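User: quick one, sequence for these tokens?
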């Protein structure tokens, strides 16, 4: 089994990225051949400062290691350093259509507030590159949060279309979403996803513990007093229960039972304790890897390994379409 996923080094990573992605990645490295990368080419689809991009890529590499990814068991690399990603994307762009690309939620959300005459082609074609990422490794499983499933679906449509035309060339991937925490919401507005590009009220993985506690203690709830999991009427409470359940590897029902009879204040304090207990040692591990020159070496070795596998698939595709 091949497993592949990645994170884009755009904004500061959030607790949503941790729960929806980072925390789950290490579970796969014992089950199959795992490829986890830094989607730095994807980061260029919106304006980004070069120094920030470089720095954030290094930060994500260190997050991967701090989360427990072991370079002996999995391949960690920067997308841009494995040029096969770009080469495959150039071919695959001919098999995804403008209509379906324009219907992607992420594209619609990101482009709606932009000057319509200045939307980069890369933002529009984002799912093409993402399909190339996935298909380049004959991936079976793609662990992602809920917001990325639409892109994986599009990659699946592409596989069907391409294989119908050329025979069994591309492997059919499948998105894998965690049971708990596939969509962590903003603490300041639980109707919105917690997101790297939302500077307000969200927990960033490098926030200090005091800030994390403060953000959780001031999370938006409702005027009621019962701690129950009710997304419709109590989205703020439901979100905090989800965060707790995901961190403790229990179900939301179990989390609900744990906090039966709690007052909101005590409940939030317990959530803050749980998040800090998880994130504080994670941050300590992060700083060790961040300051270790070996981290760069790990990426370079990952890139060499990834490229060997990617080249095989790229050549198979080139052959199928008549480029070889
Ligand atoms: P990105 O960088 O936006 O997010 C990285 C991962 O974190 C998940 N995630 C969340 N999960 C739960 N709750 C949230 N609030 C939350 N916010 C983010 C995302 O679903 C994702 O799994 N396009 C991808 C990067 C990418 C990729 C790929 C992923 C490029 N190529 C190929 C998988 C396979 C992205 O921008 O994720």
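Assistant:
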């Amino acid at each position: 089994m091949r497993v592949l996923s990645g994170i884009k080094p755009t904004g500061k990573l959030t607790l949503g990225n941790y729960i929806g992605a980072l925390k789950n990645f290490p579970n796969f490295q014992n089950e199959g051949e795992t490829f986890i990368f830094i989607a730095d080419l994807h980061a260029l689809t919106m304006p980004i400062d070069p120094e920030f991009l470089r720095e954030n890529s290094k930060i994500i590499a260190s997050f991967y290691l701090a989360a427990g990814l072991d370079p002996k068991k999995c391949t960690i690399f920067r997308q841009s350093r494995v040029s096969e990603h770009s080469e495959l994307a150039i071919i695959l762009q001919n098999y995804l259509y403008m209509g379906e690309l324009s219907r992607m939620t992420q594209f619609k959300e990101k482009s709606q507030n932009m000057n319509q005459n200045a939307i980069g082609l890369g933002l529009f074609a984002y799912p093409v590159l993402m399909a190339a990422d996935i298909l380049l490794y004959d991936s079976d499983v793609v662990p992602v949060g809920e917001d990325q499933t639409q892109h994986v679906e599009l990659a699946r449509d592409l596989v069907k279309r391409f294989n119908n035309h050329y025979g069994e060339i591309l492997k059919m991937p499948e998105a894998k979403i965690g049971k708990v925490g596939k969509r962590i919401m903003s603490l300041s507005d639980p109707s919105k996803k917690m997101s790297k590009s939302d500077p307000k009220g969200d927990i960033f993985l490098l926030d200090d513990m005091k800030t994390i506690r403060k953000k959780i203690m001031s999370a938006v709830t409702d005027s009621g007093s019962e701690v129950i999991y009710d997304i419709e009427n109590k989205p703020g409470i439901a979100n905090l229960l989800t965060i707790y359940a995901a961190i403790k590897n229990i179900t939301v029902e179990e989390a609900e039972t744990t906090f039966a009879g709690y007052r909101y204040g005590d409940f939030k304090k317990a959530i803050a304790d749980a998040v800090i207990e998880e994130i504080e040692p994670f941050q300590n591990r992060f700083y060790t890897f961040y300051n270790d020159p070996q981290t760069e070496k790990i990426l370079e070795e990952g890139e060499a390994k990834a490229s060997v596998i990617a080249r095989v698939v790229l050549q198979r595709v080139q052959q199928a379409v008549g480029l070889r």
